[in-house]
């Protein structure tokens, strides 16, 4: 990135006030306390593109939750060798150790490499690893468990939308997009007409950075209704209080991946109401969330955020509702993450 896009620079001056005006869930408030301090320096009008990029990189280092892509430093050959090696070597070690029914620790193999190997094994079992390798080659980022996971969801949702709501491109809304990795993969696959990300004020800095870096020709807007150049791929970045400004029946596809599970009850249910309002007739809603049986609240209590009990409408045409196979095989099977995760896809707002 050589310059900060004007829309992002303008948002830098607004993010502090927006953050003060919105209270995140207790789960996210702890994480954002650390992030807010790092973002202070981004608000200055004289922030350079290099400073901006360095601070975004800092946000991804040494935290419990790592957002965004990891820059690739090697060659294409190195990428191919890494994918093949991690699958053949680290996955082989996992298979030998799975008989030990306790959390796996691999001597000389960090957890992130083991998770990557398991993710590649999952892609291979679904005949996706060759397509994944080809897809990743022109993108200057490392292959990780996270990129493998986003590729799997992109391919799954692409198939569901083509079969049930028509061919791309689509008007898409994603709630809780993190660093915008899934939106990047969708756009690079030619699936996007417009992409709206609704997220916490601080997180929009990360997702807009990712989009501006890896999709520099896209139009970036922080408005739900701003007129944009016809024909351009538009990414809109909206804070939670702006979701009610998104026009009725204006999106073909709505996505939520592992963020409703981190929300307070009233916030989660409000988003679901808006999803039904915003979705066009016969649109598709896909979500994948783990059960959080003891999700903390601000008063110190906890509650059971169970994805099987979300207030879906009874007239949805359910296409799938099952345990997430990626989570089940890629993480839970190896004892990396012991929690139930369910994915659901449905055609909503059906017409006769």
Can you give a write-up of this model?
The chain has twelve helices and ten strands. The strands form two sheets. An eight-stranded mixed beta sheet has the order 3-4-2-1-5-6-10-9, with helices on both faces. The protein has a two-stranded antiparallel ribbon with strand order 7-8. Helix 5 packs across helix 6, helix 6 runs parallel beside helix 8 and helix 6 runs antiparallel to helix 12. The longest helix has 22 residues.
In short:
With 352 residues, this protein is an alpha/beta fold.
- Supply Rg: 20 Å
The number of E-state strands comes to: 10
CATH architecture title of the largest domain? 3-Layer(aba) Sandwich
**Could you say what the CATH topology of the largest domain is called?**
Rossmann fold
List the helices and strands and how they pair.
Elements (H helix, E strand, L loop, with lengths): L5 H7 L2 H7 L4 H14 L9 H11 L16 H22 L13 H15 L3 H8 L8 H20 L5 E6 L5 H8 L3 E7 L2 H14 L4 E3 L12 E5 L12 E7 L7 H14 E12 L1 E5 L5 E4 L11 E7 L1 H8 L8 E8 L4
Parallel strand pairs: 1-2, 1-5, 2-4, 3-4, 5-6
Antiparallel strand pairs: 6-10, 7-8, 9-10
Helix pairs in contact: 5-6, 6-8, 6-12, 8-9
């Amino acid at each position: 990135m050589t310059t900060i896009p004007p829309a992002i620079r303008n948002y830098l001056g607004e993010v502090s006030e927006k953050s003060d005006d919105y209270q995140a869930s207790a789960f996210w408030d702890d994480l954002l306390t650390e992030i807010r301090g790092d973002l202070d320096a981004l608000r200055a009008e004289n922030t350079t593109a290099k400073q901006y990029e360095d601070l975004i990189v800092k946000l991804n280092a040494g935290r419990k939750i790592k957002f965004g892509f990891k820059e690739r430093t090697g060659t294409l050959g190195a990428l191919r060798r890494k994918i093949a090696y991690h699958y053949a070597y680290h996955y082989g070690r996992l298979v030998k150790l799975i008989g030990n029914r306790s959390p796996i620790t691999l001597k000389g193999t960090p957890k992130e490499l083991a998770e990557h190997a398991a993710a590649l094994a999952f892609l291979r079992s679904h005949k996706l690893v060759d397509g994944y390798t080809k897809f990743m080659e022109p993108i200057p980022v490392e292959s990780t468990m996270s990129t493998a996971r986003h590729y799997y969801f992109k391919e799954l949702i692409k198939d569901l939308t083509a079969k049930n709501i028509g061919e791309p491109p689509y008007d898409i809304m994603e709630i809780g997009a993190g660093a915008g990795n899934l939106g990047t993969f969708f756009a690079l696959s030619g699936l996007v007409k417009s992409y709206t990300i609704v997220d916490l004020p601080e997180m929009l800095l990360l997702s807009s950075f990712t989009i501006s870096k890896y999709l520099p020709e896209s139009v970036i807007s922080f408005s739900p209704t701003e007129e944009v150049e016809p024909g351009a791929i538009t990414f809109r970045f909206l804070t939670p209080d702006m979701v009610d400004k998104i026009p009725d029946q204006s999106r073909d596809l709505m996505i939520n991946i592992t963020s409703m599970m981190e929300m307070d009850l009233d916030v989660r249910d409000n988003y679901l109401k808006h999803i039904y309002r915003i979705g066009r007739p016969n649109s598709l809603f896909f979500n994948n969330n783990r059960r959080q049986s003891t999700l903390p609240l601000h008063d110190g209590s906890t509650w059971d955020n169970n994805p099987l009990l979300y207030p879906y409408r009874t007239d949805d045409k359910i296409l799938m509702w099952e345990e997430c196979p990626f989570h089940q095989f890629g993480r839970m099977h190896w004892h990396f993450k012991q929690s139930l995760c369910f994915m659901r896809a449905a055609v909503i707002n059906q017409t006769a």
